Write a sequence for this structure.
């Protein structure tokens, strides 16, 4: 090994504390990046291979009823490769020992041949026997939630008739990677299931012999999906079709896409902060190293080492620190990534966990980190390289101090000498002090940005389920039914009030933009449901005109006064033009609202309802379920408090995971910045502090001078961290907002306190470490040694 | 013995700024140095002797005048040429040794031998200055005199054409100083290395072929010693 490289290794060993702290910050950034990107890659990989191996369809359409003969004409559409017609229905299930009704989607499988599209991945058992009409395959998440196994029986209520079903198999499907009830906030594995039965069995139960109500298709490569959809819509129009869609509108696929978007956005912003802080720390440390080694540099130059050789020497030093950080970060990130991917497996149902760390991710992380580290230190390195040797032989000129602002304002007199030293030192290097403050504040900011989700979600749930929706239970009917259904409900013992709900599937158009969403009918007499204005104050639904949620307004680019086209997708499918009356605030979902009477008039139906919001006596819930199970029109029920609970249950593990990581990483940054700042201050000022000790100052007093400065910087960084944190949170909230939900920028006091506590705690720890060094300050040595 | 002209210096001036003031360090210096010669540059602090030595060593650039080293005009050389000149021709010894604290004695010498054209082995260089027993000691484990001798070993290890020493005994007591001067003297005698030694201590002048007095940026006097003393004969 070359002598200069030995110097490098030993220098690094001497500054190991600082190098370690910086490497840790780099490792945090790299780990975050690797964690998020590799998790995203793995999810994509799992999704894509699941889609490929199990032939996930690309075009989806629902309709009322069409003859099987139509299938050939669908197959003839140019661009269509495979077609599978199906019968799909909403059913209710009863699981013995579970008192509540379960909603399920019943999907048919080809009776006597393997499915061409959306094939099942069997976890247990087998596909239903073509000869038996009472066998079914159950979705795994639901079976797990109830501990159901192959051979067990459940009861299905099909068209009002109870039917005993035997479980032949338990499976996963690429169509239901996320098994969530349409319109629900999160998966509820206990109360929502997917059930597959043979086509023959489903046709018989629903009186759909020789007919289908759902079709899926795959496309040949290079086919234009929108042309296929247009042709398909033309073909299906007279069969009560709701309009074909691509994967983009498929529920499970859409959730996944949104998840990828969130991971991707987070994978940019968090690592960027870490790498930025690391670059700053490297700059500070290398600058200091260069100035303490200026005479060594001069000697090397005097012996003929060129600028390049000197520059490279320090670049090697930086690269080594960066390399350690990257290596640790990659290992840590991969480890966490495998954990997080595993966590996702409970949420998204894939056949197997494939965790993959692509070389690309490591390469990008290394390149970005390396470049940032070099960019951060380029000035210090080139200063070292360009140091004129003759000048370097002279000792560094004394630092320039001046009277501080405090002095000039006359406060100087009230400060003690040590306090004056603190403030003069901060003011002497305003840029460095500011950067230190910013660095520490970013630690606080990361913590806030990392855990504000919890606060935002609490707020969002509160607004949606306590302000906007106040019903105890929601009931959905199998389709539009007459108003009489409400009176029937009110006749049930334990149901005190039933308010109408109406949902009309539609496509809204404004100018060149369009969006597919049901229009919800709201009665002005409703007491259980409110629309909220931007101030979250309840507003009454206007008798005429359309009400858009603010998010839908921005998707369509429409505001109050604009005339929007509504294409109703059911019944006679009227197309009407309706002005936007107002925009309302809503954090979950994308919806449009209208007065229920006006909506029914537009849809061309009488006084129809598609659901009801209920006030009930919770004590009578089992009896209510009992009564509802005898009402064939009732397709499903949802209890508000169950929805909230199941939402928190599915989110809890993720929140815990991210809170843990954010806390760890924030502490790393705070520690890294404070420790480095302290060590540099110590090396710059040990002479001065030792001199003070010789003059009779105590250890406590000199510690005050050094650590007091850090305390001032740390305290100043706390409010700044709050500011940055809420800024990043606001940015994230905007970036992560989707059709599924928008995050409000709500940060609770407890989150701010946590951020401050972690920053102050880490600062205190690094302060104590430096304090120990101060106590060991060798007075004579320091004064003897020439700087 | 045929004596070559090693340095030819004409009308050398150097002005540099220190804070708000301009310092005229050299105000027109003319000097010639011959191969194998040992000169002592003598003068009070601020007389310009360090500046002269730094310019001769390619560490600093002149404001005016000419410095020619053999065929090479240093005053017109660029950064790269000066680096090359220092790398292959000059050995430096500094008043404060400038050893690299994280390297042992042997490694401090190796830093130079690794980049030189025809170096001696670091062990040999250290044995010339009498430090064969201290090869693996770090600077902090060596006395001042030993550190300076490592610095001399480092300077001579590349077999330089010229050895430039800036106050090599400035930080040492007289007994240690003499050991260091003996090392310099021995190299000058045995290897024939052209040597310039800066000092403000006139007692050292006795060991020189010529003594150049500087004051206030000028050469005020040049004295040739008919008989050189050995360092042992010096005392202060």
């Amino acid at each position: 090994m070359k002598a200069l490289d030995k110097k490098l290794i030993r220098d690094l060993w001497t500054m190991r504390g600082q190098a370690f702290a910086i490497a840790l910050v780099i490792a945090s950034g790299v780990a975050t990046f690797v964690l998020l990107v590799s998790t995203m890659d793995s999810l994509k990989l799992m999704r894509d291979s699941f889609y490929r191996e199990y032939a996930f369809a690309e075009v989806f359409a629902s309709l009322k009823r069409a003859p099987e003969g139509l299938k050939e004409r669908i197959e003839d559409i140019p661009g269509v490769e495979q077609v599978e017609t199906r019968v799909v229905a909403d059913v209710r299930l009863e699981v013995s020992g579970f008192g509540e009704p379960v909603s399920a989607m019943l999907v048919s499988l080809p009776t006597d041949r393997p499915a061409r599209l959306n094939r099942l991945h069997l976890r247990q058992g087998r596909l239903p026997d073509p000869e038996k009409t009472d066998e079914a395959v159950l979705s795994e998440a639901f079976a797990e939630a109830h501990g159901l196994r192959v051979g067990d029986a459940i009861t299905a209520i099909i068209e009002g008739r109870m039917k005993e079903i035997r479980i032949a198999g338990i499976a996963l499907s690429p169509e239901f990677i996320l098994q969530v009830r349409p319109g629900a906030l999160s998966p509820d594995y206990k109360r929502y299931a997917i059930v597959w039965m043979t086509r023959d069995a489903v046709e018989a139960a629903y009186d759909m012999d020789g007919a289908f109500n759902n079709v899926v298709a795959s496309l040949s490569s290079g086919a234009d999906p929108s042309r296929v959809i247009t042709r398909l819509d033309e073909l299906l129009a007279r069969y009560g079709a709701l309009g074909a869609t691509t994967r983009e509108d498929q529920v499970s696929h859409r959730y996944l896409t949104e998840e990828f978007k969130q991971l991707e956005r987070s994978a940019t912003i968090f690592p960027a902060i870490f790498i930025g802080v690391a670059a700053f720390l490297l700059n500070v440390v290398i600058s200091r190293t260069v100035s303490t080694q200026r005479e060594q540099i001069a000697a090397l130059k005097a012996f003929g080492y060129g600028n390049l050789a000197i520059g490279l020497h320090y670049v090697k030093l930086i690269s080594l620190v960066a390399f350690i950080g990257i290596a640790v970060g990659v290992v840590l990130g991969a480890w966490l990534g495998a954990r997080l991917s595993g966590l996702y497996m409970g949420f998204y149902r894939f056949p197997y966990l494939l965790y993959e760390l692509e070389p690309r991710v490591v390469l990008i992380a290394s390149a970005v980190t390396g470049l940032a580290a070099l960019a951060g230190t380029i000035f210090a390195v080139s200063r070292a390289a360009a140091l004129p040797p003759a000048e370097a032989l002279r000792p560094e000129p004394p630092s320039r101090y001046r009277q501080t602002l405090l002095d000039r304002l006359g406060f100087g007199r009230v400060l003690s000498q040590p306090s004056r030293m603190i403030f003069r030192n901060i003011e002497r290097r305003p840029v460095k002090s500011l950067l230190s403050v910013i660095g520490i504040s970013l630690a606080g900011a990361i913590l806030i940005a990392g855990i504000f989700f919890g606060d935002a979600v609490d707020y969002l749930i509160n607004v949606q389920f306590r302000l906007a929706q106040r019903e105890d239970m929601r009931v959905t009917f199998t389709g539009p039914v007459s108003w009489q259904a409400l009176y029937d409900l009110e006749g049930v013992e334990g149901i005190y009030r039933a308010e109408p709900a109406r949902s009309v599937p539609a496509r809204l158009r404004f100018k060149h933009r369009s969006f597919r969403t049901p229009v919800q009918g709201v009665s002005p007499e409703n007491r259980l449901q409110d629309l909220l204005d931007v101030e979250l104050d309840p507003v009454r639904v206007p008798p005429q005109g359309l009400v858009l949620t603010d998010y839908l307004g921005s998707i369509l680019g429409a505001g109050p006064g604009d005339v929007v086209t509504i294409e109703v997708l059911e019944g006679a499918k009227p197309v009407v033009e309706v002005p936007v009356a107002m925009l309302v605030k809503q954090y979950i979902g994308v919806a449009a609202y209208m007065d229920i009477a006006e909506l029914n008039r537009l849809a061309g139906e009488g006084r129809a309802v598609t659901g009801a919001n209920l006030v009930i006596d919770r004590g009578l819930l089992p009896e209510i379920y009992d009564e509802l199970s005898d009402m064939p029109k009732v397709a499903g029920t949802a209890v508000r408090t169950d929805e909230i609970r199941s939402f928190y249950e599915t989110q809890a593990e993720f929140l815990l995971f991210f809170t843990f990581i954010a806390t760890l990483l924030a502490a790393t940054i705070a520690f890294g910045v404070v420790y480095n700042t302290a060590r540099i201050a110590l090396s710059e000022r040990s002479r001065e502090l030792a001199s003070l000790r010789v003059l009779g100052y105590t250890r406590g007093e000199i510690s005050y001078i050094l650590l007091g400065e850090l305390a001032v910087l740390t305290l100043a960084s706390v409010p700044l961290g709050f500011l940055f944190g809420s800024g990043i949170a606001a940015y994230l909230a905007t970036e992560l907002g989707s059709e599924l939900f928008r995050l409000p920028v709500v940060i609770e006091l407890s989150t701010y306190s946590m951020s401050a506590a972690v920053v102050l705690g880490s600062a205190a720890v690094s302060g104590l470490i430096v304090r120990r060094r101060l106590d060991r300050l060798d007075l004579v040595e320091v004064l003897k040694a020439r700087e | 013995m045929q004596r070559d002209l090693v340095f030819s210096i004409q009308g050398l001036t150097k002005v540099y700024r220190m804070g708000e003031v301009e310092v005229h360090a050299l105000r027109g210096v003319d000097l010639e140095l011959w191969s194998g010669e040992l000169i002592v540059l003598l003068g009070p602090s601020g007389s310009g002797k360090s500046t002269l030595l730094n310019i001769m060593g390619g560490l600093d650039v002149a404001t005016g005048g000419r410095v020619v080293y053999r065929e090479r005009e240093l005053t017109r050389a660029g950064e790269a040429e000066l680096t090359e000149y220092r790398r292959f021709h000059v050995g430096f010894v500094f008043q404060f040794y400038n050893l690299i604290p994280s390297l042992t004695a042997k490694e401090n010498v190796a830093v130079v031998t690794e980049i030189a054209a025809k170096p001696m082995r670091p062990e040999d260089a250290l044995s010339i200055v009498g430090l064969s027993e201290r090869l693996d000691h770090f600077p902090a484990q060596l006395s001042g005199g030993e550190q300076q001798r490592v610095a001399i070993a480092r300077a001579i290890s590349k077999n330089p054409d010229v050895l430039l020493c800036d106050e090599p005994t400035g930080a040492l007591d007289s007994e240690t100083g003499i050991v260091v001067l003996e090392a310099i003297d021995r190299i000058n005698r045995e290897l024939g290395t052209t040597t310039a030694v800066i000092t403000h201590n006139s007692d050292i002048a006795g060991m020189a072929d010529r003594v150049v007095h500087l004051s206030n940026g000028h050469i005020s006097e040049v004295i040739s010693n008919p008989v050189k003393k050995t360092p042992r004969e010096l005392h202060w």
Notes: The CA atoms of residues 52 and 104 of chain B lie 31 Å apart. Residues 174-191 of chain B form the longest helix (18 residues).
